[in-house]
Amino acid sequence: MKLGERIKQLRNDAELTQPELAVKAGIEQSYLSKLENDKSTPSYEILTKVAGAFDLDVMALTATLDPQHLQSQLGHIPEIAIKLDAQREAKKAKLRRGYIMASFAIVLGIALVIMSNSGAIFSNTVYQYHSMGLINKGEVNRWFLTHPLSELGETREQSKVRIAANIKRINEDILLIAHYKGDGFVKPVNEQRRYYRLTNQKEVDSLWRDLSAVLGMMLCIGGGFGLSYVFKLM
Q1: CA distances to 138, 163, 176, 189 from 192, in Å
Q2: How confident is the model at residue 105 (pLDDT cuts 50, 70, 90)?
């Protein structure tokens, strides 16, 4: 909006004729006509008189004007020049914030996509650990294996005796764990313990991993649009 359009709009809203506004502002009607048709460049004093006729100040009068119009037609007025400088600085600050936010969205989106594919956050592998039963003190972790135990120096006959005695003690337990805990691990159970041996691992679908990938892609796309918008305004 130009200054002439702004003055004419305010005059019409106040239901004033040009002569009436001229008298109220204390300026010539012919000069007011030139102002409304943007055929004259007013001074700050004239702007103050016109604004005062509408119970406004100069800043309020020119607040809705096009920045380019302000620069070309009113930029010579120190008060307007200060306002324009402030607007430019505010715009630069807004563009900087937009650039930072868009860049951060892209970086975060890429990180989410990479981590979702690598399983760094949401593991897509499930490990199956199997325990045959409770192990007593003095018994080795592999006590339930069905072959001679080298750490005990067992013979084949001794292992048969152990295996036969273990049949009544078998109390299987299977754990499915998202994190690898080695080929086996021990879990205390009161005065006894269980030894869990890795028996299988498989890939599974993860809803959170898929959501992470989708969110990452959306952030990348949104950040890209944000950057293009910022560059367009620069």
Answers
A1: 10, 19, 22, 5
A2: very high
The β-bridge partners of 173 are 131
Cβ-proximal residues to 11 (8 Å cutoff; 6+ apart), any chain? 17, 18, 21, 36
Point out which residues pair with 198 in neighbouring strands: 129
Mean pLDDT of 7-15: 94
* Paired residues of 14 in beta bridges: none
pLDDT in tens, 117-139: 776 566 678 899 999 999 999 99
Partners of residue 134 on adjacent β-strands:
194
Q: Which helix (H) or strand (E) holds 129?
A: strand 125-131
Which residue carries 């930072």 as its tokens? Answer: 100
Helix ranges (DSSP H) in the chain: 3-13, 18-25, 29-36, 44-53, 58-62, 67-69, 78-118, 156-166, 207-233
What pTM was estimated for this model as a whole? 0.48
- Residues pairing with 128 in the sheet: 176, 200
Facing residues of 127 across strands?
177, 201
Give per-residue pLDDT as tens, 151-186. Answer: 999 999 999 999 999 999 999 999 999 889 999 999
DSSP state letter for 138: T
CA angle (52, 56, 57) in 5-degree steps:
85
Give residues with Cβ within 8 angstroms of 95, minimum separation 6.
230, 233, 234
- Residue 74 to residue 82: CA distance in whole angstroms: 11
For residues 196 and 133, the answer to whether their CB atoms sit within 8 Å is no
